[in-house]
Amino acid sequence: MAEEDFLSQEEIDLLLQSLGKEEEEEKEELKYEPFNIDELERISPTRLVKLEQVINRWIASATAELRGMVFNLDTISISDIKTEKISDFVLKIPLPAAIAVLSIEALNGRMYLVLDTRLIYTIISIIFGGPAQPYKVEGKSFTKFEMKIVNNLISILSRHLDVAWRELIREGDIQFVGIEDNPRRLITISRNEIVIVVTLEVEIEGFKGNVYLAIPMKTIEPIKDLLRTAESESGGFRDVILSTLMTTPVILEAVFPLFRMSVGEVLELKEGDFIPLNRKASESVLIKVAGVPFFEGILGESGGHKAVKIKSFSEAVPRGIA
């Protein structure tokens, strides 16, 4: 083998130096950041359409009954729906706490209904004739009377939630177990357990408070596919809407025939004067419903009271009603 086939020491040194540089460049390219598994936990789950339908139906039916208890209740609406660790959720619960523990035996799971303390004291203030604003609580415990009001609120909310759940989900009943006053007792398995937190905003004469519904992911795991399926609003929900409409109060008025009088004649009227009508009592009068012409009727008496007998639909009745 010829001598020129061998590398000189100088060439060997240069080759080794170049190999070292390539290794350094390769190391620089392989830089990475540690993976944070917590970021996965905060990714929003697939939109649970049917769960939102349950919440909307729950709000609609519960609001009507709550107005009988809190007459100046304005609205209840969904403020937010998100997932978070149960440990993070617990830190948001103010003291004294009012946490209703709800059980779904068919799913072997639980839900937690949390009332904002400021909202509770605002409602108590209203019940006693005070303004729609909370008074200072400063960590005090609820009195027996205050707890009675809390129980009434939770009873209404949990009952309507159960009805909405059974009508749409049909997977077990939601049963009220009891009230927990220590938020930390909600952490039963792991601080990293994920819950879906539905935040409802309650508005009363400008004051805004919250109601929270926390649903552990493990509770709805068996029915997650069902919750992703949209259901037509024309089924049972249509019945709920119709039922609500049927109980909505409206004003009926029987309109006497119109006639003209001068300003002078009106000013001359005094107590005891009669205003003659230009139509016979046997002739029909117009009956309006919420200001809309709806029926034709005849004036008369019923059970000793003045009454109007409906004779027919008005010609001006909206199309599709008659």
TrEMBL record:
Write the record's keywords in alphabetical order, separated by commas: Bacterial flagellum, Cell membrane, Cell projection, Chemotaxis, Cilium, Flagellar rotation, Flagellum, Membrane
Pfam family, any one: FliM
Write down the SUPFAM superfamilies for this protein, in alphabetical order. Answer: CheC-like (SSF103039), Surface presentation of antigens (SPOA) (SSF101801)
Q: Which Gene3D superfamilies match?
A: CheC-like, SpoA-like
Under the GO molecular function aspect, what terms does this record hold? cytoskeletal motor activity
In terms of InterPro entries, this protein maps to: CheC-like_sf, Flag_FliM, FliN-like_C, SpoA-like_sf
Residues covered by the Flagellar motor switch protein FliN-like C-terminal domain: 245-313
- Keyword Cell inner membrane assigned: no
Q: How does it sit in the membrane?
A: Peripheral membrane protein
The cellular location(s) given in this protein's UniProt record come to: Bacterial flagellum basal body; Cell membrane
Its Gene Ontology cellular component terms are: bacterial-type flagellum basal body; plasma membrane
Family recorded in the similarity comment: Belongs to the FliM family.
- What role does this protein play? FliM is one of three proteins (FliG, FliN, FliM) that forms the rotor-mounted switch complex (C ring), located at the base of the basal body. This complex interacts with the CheY and CheZ chemotaxis proteins, in addition to contacting components of the motor that determine the direction of flagellar rotation.
Record's protein name: Flagellar motor switch protein FliM
Q: Which organism is it from?
A: Aquifex aeolicus
